[in-house]
Amino acid sequence: EPAPLPDYLARLNPAQREAVLHGDGPGAAAPLLVIAGAGSGKTNTLAHRVAHLMLKGADPRRMLIMTFSRRAAQEMTARVERIAREVLGAEGAALAGGLDWAGTFHGMGARLLREYAPLVGLDEAFTIHDREDSADLMNLLRHELGFGLAEARFPSKSACLAIYSRSVNAQAPLDGVLAEGFPKFRNREAELRRLFAAYVEAKQDQGVLDYDDLLLYWRAMVGEAGLGAEIGARFDHVLVDEYQDTNRLQAAILLGLSPQGRGLTVVGDDAQAIYAFRAAEVRNILDFPGLFTPRARVVTLEQNYRSTAPVLAAANAVIGEARERFSKTLWTARGEGARPGLVTVHDEAAQAGYICRAVLEAREEGTALKDQAVLFRTSSHSGPLEVELTRRNIPFVKFGGLKFLDSAHVKDLLAVLRLRENPRDRVAGFRVLRLIPGIGTATARAVLDALAAPGAGVAEALGALRVPARAAPFWPAFRDMMLNPAEAPWPAELEAVRLWYEPHLERLHEDAETRRSDLLQLGQIAAGHGSRSAFLTDLTLDPPDATSDESGVPLLDDDYLVLSTIHSAKGREWRNVFVLNVVDGCMPSDLGTGTTAGIEEERRLLYVAMTRARDALHLVTPLRFYTHGQRARGDRHVYAARSRFLTEAMLPLFERFAWTPQGTAGAAARPAVQPVDLRARMKDMWR
Ligand code: ATP
Ligand code: MG
């Protein structure tokens, strides 16, 4: 008689258990794909698999776990720890502590590259450019090469970066990328090629890598005979969540790590692919089984554990209209629950009012703010709501929007740290030197050339520089700071740099006081990172989010409402979910230029939003909304219609009602008027 299953396996359904137990015998496991719908327990199954493999003797230090965000990776290791603790107590928890290769593709790439830098011709102290820095470097080179100065119709700096990045991530030739995504720049191919060559050379000269390089170099490393084998041999298991949103490069990295697929587990849902705009390739997940001989084992999961039946029915109806047929049926045992709301409001102000009211009511009824989320297509859509929440003192945290690091003063301070880490980083250098009055482009170039002098030559080169009179009072402090990059140990160094920045902060910003408190907060964040280099890498790759709290850092034990872009809500769930602006023009956005593929991606986006809800879902449609300068049409109010993704036939799945703010003065206080179609009346007159 077989022994009874341990609890952590017994509570899984048979398909989940099959995925968890797959290949747990002696020898390396054959590749495994778990492809299943939203809320079917994919992430949970992955966590159980990691725990199970570990409990069966797999070495946690030889497992590589890659998820969509650093937060998701932390949640994953925390889950594994809970399971391991359940089985083995403190010993299990200690075991899970060995899982230190868990993070995003980019984060793990940065770590491996730092380690192997000397072997592949990179400087170990490389700094990482975020998208804005990359665009700035592109711009610098564009001007140096004289492109697009005389005539218009050369791509903007961000378009240049987008073209470059798509070509790299999709591993597609430039002419194809231009023809498909940027047809009006097709005749610029030769210039773009020169620009990109200069861009690559500049990054190498300056010892900087951009986001794409983290994958590109990693891909190249695993493609090398000796090095590839060495890196592949470090990991017995490589496990990836949200695989539908990986790009060609990431798929190539996995194959490089394990050409036969041994020890590979990937998990995802093709109906939730929402990153095609960043060159993600849904074919990755569909093609996965066929990459290997014998083919990868495929497990599908069909029970949804997240949502009530009415919520799931509405979400299924929306995705059921997709052009692509997703071969998954989801059912839930959670039969009870209300139909999702489809709420009509007059405009975005009323939308904000409705949400504040509904959120507070739900809290009264026992749903904490933390168990509620408001989701939107684009970060700017939450503006009116943020104002209203602030006015009513409802605390919130915003994910995927403006990052704490996007503010000028925080970027300034980080640029100083980056320049100390890597004095050849010219984008950081220009940013820092711009702070000093009197230093123009020519002087800045001379200073940066001096800083790039080898070894002890820097002091001499800086000493020989003549700076303009206006810069003179600030010069000694800058020079001394750059000459002593290691004067204070980390994180005390940050304080030293902050003191250097202080007079500039006062000079440049009227609201120096609030900005100063941001920088002090940055000091607190710094304390959690072991070194300047680790701090800079982590912050650049996965910046902290902005909050209603002025400090910019969430107070984790407070109750707060979550505001998030749909993209950043991936993989998460809340009891109560609101979706803003479910109107044509927002969802789908970009009506005028949307391609079929683009529209289909927007449909999946709405599906992702709806499937975040556990108990209650509310879709809000303002009759009027404000567009924010899209497509050169400028900011303006437009009249909106319910999103085309909600067809007439679906309406019975929703509880429909109009909501008007009560007790406000003026026009908004007028009672709700039911719309009538007078055209029909006119025709009836003659019947
Ligand atoms: P998404 O597609 O949104 O990423 P997912 O498939 O990864 O969703 P999970 O987040 O892992 O789904 O699980 C959804 C919810 O269902 C979670 O609250 C999880 O704890 C719960 N769940 C998963 N499997 C089971 C199970 N066997 N029994 C009970 N609850 C489960
Ligand atoms: Mg998941």
From TrEMBL:
One of its GO terms (biological process) is recombinational repair. It catalyses: Couples ATP hydrolysis with the unwinding of duplex DNA by translocating in the 3'-5' direction; ATP + H2O = ADP + phosphate + H(+). It comes from the Bacteria. One of its GO terms (molecular function) is ATP hydrolysis activity. ATP binds at A36, G37, A38, G39, S40, G41, K42, T43. It is an enzyme of class 5 (isomerase). It holds the Pfam family UvrD-helicase. Its EC number is 5.6.2.4. GO terms for cellular component: cytosol. InterPro entries: DExx_box_DNA_helicase_dom_sf (IPR013986), DNA_helicase_UvrD-like_C (IPR014017), DNA_helicase_UvrD/REP (IPR000212), P-loop_NTPase (IPR027417), UvrD-like_ATP-bd (IPR014016). Residues 10-308 form the UvrD-like helicase ATP-binding domain. Residues 309-571 form the UvrD-like helicase C-terminal domain. Belongs to the helicase family. UvrD subfamily. This is DNA 3'-5' helicase. It comes from Paroceanicella profunda.
